[in-house]
Amino acid sequence: MSRAELDAPGLYHRAVVWLLFLILLLPLAGTLLYSVATSWSASILPSGLTFKWYLQLWGDPRFLQAFGQSLVVCVGALVLSVLVILPLLFVVHYHFPRLDALMNILILLPFAVPPVVSSVGLLNLYGSGPLAMVGTPWILIGCYFTVALPFMYRAITNNLQAINLRDLMDAAQLLGASTFQATVLVVLPNLRKGLMIALLLSFSFLFGEFVFANLLVGTRYETLQVYLNNMRNSSGHFNSALVISYFLFVLLLTWGANRLNKDKD
Amino acid sequence: MTTPTRGRTLALLLLVPFALFFFVFQIAPLAWVAIHSVQTDAGWSLDNFSKAFGSRFYRQAIQFSLEISFWSSLFGIVIAVIGASSLRRVDSRLRDFVSAFANMTSNFSGVPLAFAFIILLGFNGAITMMLKQSGLIDDFNLYSKTGLIITYTYFQIPLGVLLLYPAFDALREDWRESAALLGANGWAYWRHIGLPVLTPALLGTFVILLANALGAYATVYALTTGNFNVLPIRIAAMVAGDISLDPNLASALAMILVGLMTLVTLVHQWLLRRSYHVAR
Amino acid sequence: MSFVSVERLDKRYGTTEVFSDISFTVERGEFITLLGPSGCGKSTLLRAIAGLTPINAGTILLDGQNLAPLGPQKRDIGMVFQSYALFPNMNVEQNVAFGLRMQKVKGAESTRRVAEVLALVELGEFAGRYPHQLSGGQCQRVALARSLVTRPRLLLLDEPLSALDARIRKHLREQIRQIQRELGLTTIFVTHDQEEALTMSDRIFLMNKGRIVQSGDAQSLYTAPVDAFAAGFIGNYNLLDAAQASALLQRPIHTRVAIRPEAIELGIDGTLDGEIRSHSLLGNVIRYRVQAHGVQLLVDVLNRTAADLLPDGQRVSLTIGPDALCEVA
């Protein structure tokens, strides 16, 4: 315990940080408590504790299906992202560096254009006709690809700049490797950590996505968030167990990303 | 430095999948919305926009959107500044722990957050109960503008903290020491040096928070079952609701929202460019 | 009674000792320097006097007043930092006026005093410029002006010239000393550069590993180092152990010995025989490496004429007078 913490400014800062932590914790704590309560209505504390809501949740086939479908869509979107974005990044950074400026503007689009707005176009364009995708997981995978794009692009770009792509490729090629060999044997292994982190963070973000899921697909391919919303009228305890389960899952992912990040340094 | 032409052709080919997906899922819908916002049954016109701005109902949606975004961003950033500033000055264990926690709670938005707030601050919520019993308030309506502002502020805080924390790197410790030796106490330092230097970062973050709140749909939808009058809800109701389907009007409203967001993004880019010579 | 009195100061970070048992005094108007290598604790000691770093034990008295209960705002001490620490959102005039503003001095008087001190550092026409528009040397002069305008009782300078290039450094050195004399301001200066310390100070405190190893004026510090560290840090002493010294001087010597290179006479009729191994031209001084009686010595000779430059291999004879020798611990 350093002397700094014992005097007034140190104390103030610790108090502020703890307060911040408590503010952020409160809704979570409330939900957690609700999820293990036997009943809790119109009183400050719950009446009793139980795990039955979790048991009920994890035994519900509809929940498991929704969870699984969320996984399918998110993983699918990320696989698509990797397959599309990695070559893109490689080409931009190695062959056409000036495209990077354009790309940086393009990746602003998913931010400037909220999902609600895109949904208007998406529903009308792909609701029927040759590219009818509305109501299927395919449209979700495509949309989630655009959602993950800014994160993935920026994370891997930073990574590529840090490892100095050109120099690595040139060195490998001078030693006799073809472009393909150089990419696979030299560049990709160096991207592994950055890629993993980007994937984990994008995944947790996608897993919590609701707008596209609800507007474009809804109950026809129920993802976890849509399921959560549809269950709003069932027991609040059940919903809380659902929310906490979802959050624990996301926690695991971000914790994993954090660990990898620390490892990297 | 040029690369052999065969390589370049292959490289260009590799760009195609990206261009394809990006076009289909991002550009095309946006283009559709832009085009249809200026179309009615009678062809090209700005009728949709005049309908949107002419109707009290839609004007209210725009107004509520702006109000909720503004206030939640303001409260969010004030809390984030105070929090981030103290976060930098505590020991590393506490700092890492709370930073990681803020990181994780930034994912806690949308439907799950709405439910959590209903549990705590709904009509029968635990905190509502506590406040009522202690006599501090008579009643609290989470499903009102105020309730929404509070809920939005909650998810703005982690984002604000994460964005502002690195900005404090610009503040050098020896400025604070210098100011102290010249007679400035903590508050004077912030007023004359700390806040002015941080202002670009503060404004930039505020602008991002604004955009974040303007486009938010999930939280308000889940909290009010789509019954609160803000722009995103209005837009969605017109394409996926069961009452009226008017994609052109929806497009116009959508373009208004995009207009607001773009304005906000442009201001942010301008602020970044105006970023202080402080950065040296 | 001394103007500044530091008694038995101790500072530790956890179990690591930064400085310990530091005691010294400074008279009113004196310019003293804390000199030492990086990590010897001199900067931390300065910051402790300023009130920026707490101490574990000891007292600091300024003009009879115990500084312990006072924060840096109330100590009436001015300080110049190595990194200038100019406030980037204010121009030169506003930076300099800041201390006055904190003292609630405004308007005409503030403007007058700012102009006065800017003239002192020869930056009158730069009042409207911002820090990023100034060179390093100009920034440092603004920092100096800012710390002087409030007329502090004590001025502290923490390696203010280390970040500047050699030419500016020399110029600023003189300027700082001149201003200090004009104002009669008690000053404590910290540096690792012995030339700075020797040219600027009334007295020097040589520090090593958290302790004051030697104190005195420039001449005594330079000509009479107390131990091997001091001899190694100041000047280019030849350090010989007892055996080497005995062999060289051909009489029994029982301690380590330090010999200044410029104090060894190089000629053809001296008492010790030696041979020039190599030489370096340092501009106004030629530094020879001479081997004599099994010991290699540095010998400095003024570069007066071409005849002074002797070739390698030349046999020479050296004279080492009793004053040139210094017994060290």
Automatic annotation (TrEMBL), chain B:
<dbReference type="GO" id="GO:0055085">
    <property type="term" value="P:transmembrane transport"/>
</dbReference>
<comment type="similarity">
    <text>Belongs to the binding-protein-dependent transport system permease family. CysTW subfamily.</text>
</comment>
<keyword id="KW-1133">Transmembrane helix</keyword>
<dbReference type="Pfam" id="PF00528">
    <property type="entry name" value="BPD_transp_1"/>
</dbReference>
<feature type="domain" description="ABC transmembrane type-1">
    <location>
        <begin position="62"/>
        <end position="268"/>
    </location>
</feature>
<keyword id="KW-1003">Cell membrane</keyword>
<feature type="transmembrane region" description="Helical">
    <location>
        <begin position="108"/>
        <end position="127"/>
    </location>
</feature>
<keyword id="KW-0813">Transport</keyword>
<dbReference type="InterPro" id="IPR000515">
    <property type="entry name" value="MetI-like"/>
</dbReference>
<keyword id="KW-0812">Transmembrane</keyword>
<keyword id="KW-0472">Membrane</keyword>
<feature type="transmembrane region" description="Helical">
    <location>
        <begin position="12"/>
        <end position="35"/>
    </location>
</feature>
<dbReference type="GO" id="GO:0005886">
    <property type="term" value="C:plasma membrane"/>
</dbReference>
<feature type="transmembrane region" description="Helical">
    <location>
        <begin position="249"/>
        <end position="272"/>
    </location>
</feature>
<feature type="transmembrane region" description="Helical">
    <location>
        <begin position="68"/>
        <end position="87"/>
    </location>
</feature>
<dbReference type="InterPro" id="IPR035906">
    <property type="entry name" value="MetI-like_sf"/>
</dbReference>
<feature type="transmembrane region" description="Helical">
    <location>
        <begin position="147"/>
        <end position="168"/>
    </location>
</feature>
<protein>
    <submittedName>
        <fullName>ABC transporter permease subunit</fullName>
    </submittedName>
</protein>
